[in-house]
Amino acid sequence: MIPASFPDRARIDARDKVLGVARFSADVPVTGVLYAMMVPARIAKGTLTGLDTAAALRVPGVVRVLTEADFPAPPPVIENGPPPPPPTLEREIAYRGQPVALVVAETLEAAIEGAAAVVCTYAAAPFAALIDSEGGVREMGEEIVFGDAEATLASAAVVVEGEFLSPTQHHNPIELLATTAVWEAGRLTLHEATQGAGGTRGMTARALGIDPGVVDVKSPYVGGGFGQKGGLGQRQTALIAHASMLLGRPVKLVTPRGQIFHLATYRPLSRHRIRLGATAEGRMVAMQYDAEQEQSRHGIFPSAEYHETTSRMYGIANYLGTSADVRIDRQPPGWMRAPHPQASGFAMESMVDELAYRLGQDPVALRLANTGDVDFRTGQPFSSNHLNACLEEGARRFGWSSRTAEPGSMTADDGSLVGWGVACGSYPSMMVPAVATLRIGADGSTRYAASGHEMGQGIRTAIASVLLESLEIDPERLEILIGDTTAAPQHITAGSWGSAGAVPVAMRAAARMREAVAELLDGREIAGNLHRRLATVRRPFLEIEVSEVGPGQGQDVLQALQYGAPAVAGPAYPTFTTMSYIAHFVEVRVEPTTRRVRVPRVVSIVDCGRVISPRTAESQVRGGVVWAIGAALREATEVDPRYGGYLNNDLADYVVAVNADIGAIDVGFIDQPDPLANSAGLKGLGEVAMVGASPAIANAIFHATGRRLHELPIRIEHLL
Amino acid sequence: MHPFDYIRPATPQDAVAAFANAEAGARYIAGGTTLYDLMKLDIERPPLLIDVTAIAGLGEVDIGDERLRVGALVPMSTIAADPDIGRDYPVLAESLAKAASQQLRNMATVGGNLLQRTRCMYFRNGADGAFPCNKRQPGSGCAAIDGLDRGQAVLGTSASCTAVSPGDWPVALTALDASVEIVGPAGARRMLVADLYRLPGDTPHLEFSLTPGELITGIEIPRPAAGSGSTYHKIRDRESYAFALASAAVVVQRDGDLVSRARIALGGVATRPWRATEAEDLLVGQPLTIETALAAGRAAFSTATPGHHNGFKLELGARTVADALLIAAERSRT
Ligand SMILES: Cc1cc2nc3c(=O)[nH]c(=O)nc-3n(C[C@H](O)[C@H](O)[C@H](O)COP(=O)(O)OP(=O)(O)OC[C@H]3O[C@@H](n4cnc5c(N)ncnc54)[C@H](O)[C@@H]3O)c2cc1C
């Protein structure tokens, strides 16, 4: 009943979104709501010594100013337990922009005016704002070692070597961070823009010392998450929840973008030193790779994960990977699309390109000869690896065979230098447990409730695709409830495991429903769709519940799911490793005089196992490539080490790519089911889409100009 | 943001009178795309906004034989899309088409555009006192000079301020020797656009040569000589919706193969719209080739003083001028 490949299907919520019918968290109408605004700390580190709220309280409409004294003490840290919830309000200032007070008012205007009227005094302390600032504390992370990289490098025929830098970058989804808290009759309902409704529930309850059982979190639509709205939870959520509980009225906060730059997680600046050794024929045999990143004083974004993909992408048998955090006085960094491999992939794929150049080999051919079936890190086989097929199909579509190898050898009619570059990406394909209920009514309705968050990636469309392909139900009355803790337990949706968490369980639900219908009808042949058949046998509805876990996971993970704790399997499963792959081919044109870089076309071919929702999958890849163009050529958040904080904290000065920067993006899929990763045969897609596209651009620039650039973003001044 | 009063007078005289009667700090407001932004950042705190958009007669475009006159309230997008202006004054249309975004151009007026304020990040972000800024808080110092100055000016700077004059349109108007029409408490007057802008010197908070309460009613632009070619060439960090790293407004007149007159103004690199007269002089009597164009470009930056991270603007600026000259020359006839 599950088809071998899925037909193209329009996004099921496209129309609602275009009409503005889809309700994002800040759109939920709540009567009697109060508006909140945070007061950010002006200093980068130190102590809040005074907080004068008198003037703020005189602003007409201001109801209350909450300070540190209004909040419970933080919960005790549990050794080896879940990460602590974000702190609420504190007198100790750990970074510039940390909230020191919360103003609550009858109107948004009064809240804003009140926030500006709060007078703070500080005792400032010395601070370290950047990786090289005095006062940063270096802390080594886990080492990833297999084989003998040092000895192999010492005897390798060719060794290429380089240091690369990836800058601080912020997610900047269009939807701002938004929380509305409604405390009513002993229950707390949070309308929150989050990728992890379950985690938000747990974090908020722990921060405030209340029972998570009385907290409901609803996040049916997220206007872009990219990791910013997941992982570590938002500091503001507990503030707003607490305000609502204290005041007995709903409270709402939509955080201004300038504050979000200072509060939310971000991609930390990172440095990558690589030595890559190969035989004279171009077989990569050893790699030494030292990664270090900026980290907050207590942050947990793991430095060792820079090695997650670099240690597995090519069949390199000898690997020595170190990693380090440099702890400085900033807010915690976190997961941002293609979290580690955006940076590590830039370093590694630049080095692979350099190796091909050094050896006089074609960079596609060199890669084709180095992929493998075995994950040397675990010694296990990959469940599937179609990277070579991606490279071959990409090269064919791009017309790679007409490339001339020498840098600067290709020019356009207008005198622009033309560069063709290639780079690969991979990303762990992971899976999470899920519980789903499916109810089909004789009245024509279908209600499906499961874990998952719709962040625009198209998870609802993928679920609908499965249900509509395998069940004869009315598509017009199919309701898909996700991102809602009252409908089903909610695992965080991130790390490209959204589909793996949503689709196999939907397939299982459909199969179970068909069994249930067959049982009910007991051999009777009844015409019409499932609703009709139920009506005919006078059954108002049929409801089933199913669950699904990842390979190697026990049923106990369903317990973790109930608490909203992360329960992620893979990429190293008990007997195999599963990675997704992509190959990007990029053409750049570098203007002859002023050296502007343009990217007229990109071809990206993906191995993400079976494709469930072709249209949204393609759109995911386009989005990844667009972002990689921004990340490679434009995006960097500026920190002045004398002051801390972020200077270019709006969308005019934090320069993302605009339409005019984007040319043709041709996306292709191998669409071969993975035999082991999950019952649907799919692998993760959202992250891998972006991985490797930035180095493909850098490699194309090298091909155009002969300049190997070691720092992102690559800007006009680097090419003049 | 702070509460303010708001009025919407119907005549220039009423507007000027309202300003005269208001407490200090009142502002005219047109499209609001600069002013509201700065109010939200707490940089501007006007007690009174005098909305000038209901004033009749300031929204006209008049294309004459000798000159073009544009009312102060004409939206940027109107000039950017006007086919006649695009044909006769390409430098003007391009300067607006390459500025901001379509949405902003629809709201913003060509009068308000002249008085937009710098994008210096230390100026914009420091309302809470985190960064010193002589423009925002006279005498407090300048954080940009020894800071992240990639975007800062290399021409017309002082020890107090290196903030760039951000607009594109004022640069094009400066190249065309345009003037502004003003009414104020002391009556009407007219001033060259080039004279509207002050160098920062020791008083970077004084940006314009208008006296308080003066209202810009229109802009007058003399038509370039027949056969001249012009362009506005703008280099930025992305293809659209970004301020200039370097830009050049250029008008070239040729006599045979030789330049008889060149007018060059620079944007993105200077503390005010910058007329590059050294470069203009160098070109007279010369053919326009990549070599002479680059020599002119370099001459335009001969007095430039780079900071820590903006040194590239000297070379980028010179090349931008060179490309602009060649584009304009291509468009010129003899
Ligand atoms: C994100 C962003 C990007 C931008 N990018 C660019 C760019 O690339 N290039 C560019 O050139 N500009 C750019 N701009 C600036 C934009 O062009 C200006 O904000 C706009 O032109 C100002 O016009 P306005 O009518 O909105 O002015 P307002 O905001 O209404 O007023 C601006 C100032 O002028 C005064 N004023 C207005 N009208 C008059 C009048 N008739 N007489 C006297 N005083 C008056 C006001 O008091 C105020 O001080 C950008 C702006 C933004 C927000």
TrEMBL record, chain A:
One of its GO terms (molecular function) is oxidoreductase activity. Pfam families: Ald_Xan_dh_C (PF01315), MoCoBD_1 (PF02738), MoCoBD_2 (PF20256). SMART domains: Ald_Xan_dh_C. Residues 19-126 form the Aldehyde oxidase/xanthine dehydrogenase a/b hammerhead domain. SUPFAM superfamilies: CO dehydrogenase molybdoprotein N-domain-like (SSF54665), Molybdenum cofactor-binding domain (SSF56003). This is Xanthine dehydrogenase family protein molybdopterin-binding subunit.
UniProtKB/TrEMBL annotation, chain B:
InterPro entries: CO_DH_flav_C, CO_DH_flav_C_dom_sf, Diverse_Substr_Oxidored, FAD-bd_PCMH, FAD-bd_PCMH-like_sf, FAD-bd_PCMH_sub1, FAD-bd_PCMH_sub2, Mopterin_DH_FAD-bd. The keyword Flavoprotein applies. Residues 1-226 form the FAD-binding PCMH-type domain. Keywords: FAD, Flavoprotein, Oxidoreductase. Pfam families: CO_deh_flav_C (PF03450), FAD_binding_5 (PF00941). GO terms for molecular function: FAD binding; oxidoreductase activity. This is Xanthine dehydrogenase family protein subunit M. It comes from Methylobrevis albus.
